[in-house]
Each structure stands twice: as C-alpha cells, then as structure tokens.
Write a structure and sequence with these properties.
The complex is a heterodimer of chains A (96) and B (149).
Chain A (H helix, E strand, L loop, with lengths): L1 H18 L3 E6 L6 H12 L3 H14 L1 E7 L1 H13 L4 E5 L2
Antiparallel strand pairs in A: 1-2, 1-3
Helix pairs in contact in A: 2-3
Chain B lengths: L1 E4 L5 E4 L3 H14 L3 H6 L8 H30 L3 E3 L1 H22 L15 H24 L3
Classes of the chains: A alpha+beta (96), B mainly alpha (149).
Amino acid sequence: MKAVESPAHEPRTKARAKTDKPWQVVVLDDPVNLMEYVSRILIKIFGFSSEQANVLMMAVHQQGRAIVWTGGREKGEMYVNQLHSAQLNATLEKAE
Amino acid sequence: MTIGPTVAGGLKLVPEAEKDWIVLLEIANDGEGKLSKRLAKLMDEDSMWDEIVVPELEQEFSKQRLAVMREVVKAKEDKSDIHIVKKSAEIWYGALNQARLGLEERYKFGPREFTEASKIEDPVARAAYYRSDFYCTVQSLLLQYVMKD
C-alpha cells in the first residue's frame, strides 16, 4: 500500500506545473507580407479589433516582432500553426 | 496585361501577349521551395514541427500553386481571361505570396521601398524582381477589391 500511494501523485503535479508555464506567440517581420494582410490575419486568427491588429502589425513592422498571444503551449502551437498556414513568420517562446 | 476589378466582386486578368502568360505560369515555379521547412526552423525541436506540421503545410501550399497553375494553363488553352472570384481569392493570394517569399529567399531583395530595380545588375535577378513586383500588385488588388469583408 505504501509504495503505491505517494510516488503516483508527485510526478503528475510536476508535469502540470511545467505545462502551465506561459508561452508567447510571437509574429516576426519579413520583407514580403503586406501590412494589410498581416492585420487581417491577426483579426481572423485571434479575433482582435481592427485597431488592436493594426497596433500589433505596426509593432511587427517597426520593431521586427510582436507578442500577439500568451497562454498554454498547446494552444500557442495551434496559433503558430495557423500563422504559418497564412505564411507569416511566427514562433512560440517561453514568457519571461 | 490588363487587370481590373469586376462588377461581380472579383478580379479579371487579361493577358495580352505571350510574355504575360509566361509571367503567370511562373507563379507556381517561383513559389516552389521549402517554405514550410523555413517556417519550421522558427520552432524548437520539442514542438516536433518537422514531423507534424511541415507535411500538412507542404500539402496545403502545393495545392495553392497547383490550383493557380491549372487555372492559368486552362485559360491559356481556351484563350480566355482569368477571373479570380471571391471563392478562389485566398488560393491565388497564397500562391502569389509563396512566389514572392520564394523569390525573396533566392534573391534577398529586401523591403520594396528600399529596392530599386534599375540597380539590380543581374538580369535574371532583375526579371525576378519585376515578377515579384507584379505579384505584389495583384495581391494588393485582391485585398482591395476581392478579399475585403
């Protein structure tokens, strides 16, 4: 009985803590994608308002990158997949 | 080539010379490359992007190029204009984008506002730049007239 009790719970807790660390979806600048298109994609994928999308698009254009979403890894990967499908440079980073 | 919006909310491409057809047929060739793999390089190894996402994206990108190629070939055979309707606008936009991304990867033109075609010495690269510029114009027209909400 004793051998079964405690080790069964501990790793599960650790794994969960690791998964819950926030991740950031980052869109990176490139010289090809049109600014209007980038805004449209951000609206389509993340449901931003046109104003929010334009601010983020300008950040990508002027600073070379913008964090567009923060959350769990799995969902972040889904968003990056959608951004790649739209041919935008995007990556997933651990939040600092 | 003449390009213009249609009353039905599409875009009409009217090739007028053989060279116009050549440029349109180049869209698929210019887009051929390793876009999905280049995008995968932005992800860490833990994501298994190469194994899971790349094949799916490759298929999607390939479908866009093939669809545009088929449409152009058919129009050329039929000696007809090309009509890009709302339904196929995203496919065209995607294929044109792939073509521009492919050319950028090969020739490193940089942002349009800082590139002067007359200063590109290599004639092959200059021709590629003009194609990229043309593709960009069609994309802008698609956004303006066809893909608007």
